[in-house]
Design brief:
- There is one protein chain.
- By secondary structure, this protein is mostly beta strands.
- The chain contains no helices and four strands.
- Strands 1-4-3-2 form a four-stranded antiparallel beta sheet, with no helix packed on it.
- The two termini are 18 Å apart.
Length: 55
């Protein structure tokens, strides 16, 4: 999953994601990469479990 952030995150950091509109996008993941894109950062995440296992 690709996330846009205004702050950089270190590779390997554990993060928690929760969307208020799409509840299936909630869970914990690990930062795979963090690349600067203009004034923001594109952060690649890998979730710990599959979408089907989160319900």
């Amino acid at each position: 999953m690709l996330v846009l952030s205004y702050r950089p995150l270190p590779v390997g950091a554990l993060v928690r994601i929760r969307d208020t509109n799409l509840f299936f996008l909630s869970g914990c993941g690990c930062v795979l990469h963090c690349n600067r894109w203009g004034f923001a950062y594109l952060i690649g995440l890998k979730f710990d479990s599959a979408i089907a296992a989160r319900f």
